[in-house]
Specification:
Structural class: alpha+beta
Number of domains: 1
Distance between the termini: 35 Å
Helix content: 25-40%
Order of helices and strands: HEHEEEHEEEE
CATH architecture: Alpha-Beta Complex
Number of helices: 3
Amino acid sequence: MPVRQSLDALGASAKRLWGGRRLRRENLHLTLLFVGAVFPPRLEVLRTAADGIVAEPFLLRLDRLHCWRRNRIAWAGCRQVPAALLALQAALADRVARAGFAREREPFLPHVSLLRNATCPAGMGQEDLPQPDIAWPVDNFVLVESLLQADGARYRILDRWPLRLAPAAGE
């Protein structure tokens, strides 16, 4: 996948700047909503909530590299968040909350984590950083399970939903 390859290469650049531990290429992702540990019977509730989502495909342009000093995470993000991404995330968050899951406290900031345990220096401006330009055509979203292992987390896709335009009136 060219997007993952580009993000992996950006992670290598970020590591040269800030050290830390790179995320595995296959683990690179953008989290729409974090729900935490879910017992198997509740997975069907999550699936049902996601089943009702109607959202249009969009292009996500990852054009920002940043490092959070507080939690030592280097990440790629976007200067302009697509309205379709915000609508998808809001619809999913609303449906999942109505299904009885806790709402996230932090506002949604779309990003792809690239490094953990990075040394994020104070005072480094965006002009000092590599400026990525990764075009990610988004046409689906997934439900992912995080499997903690001795050598780090692995992610397993449990289900996938296509993004599609809402049917026109009368269809």
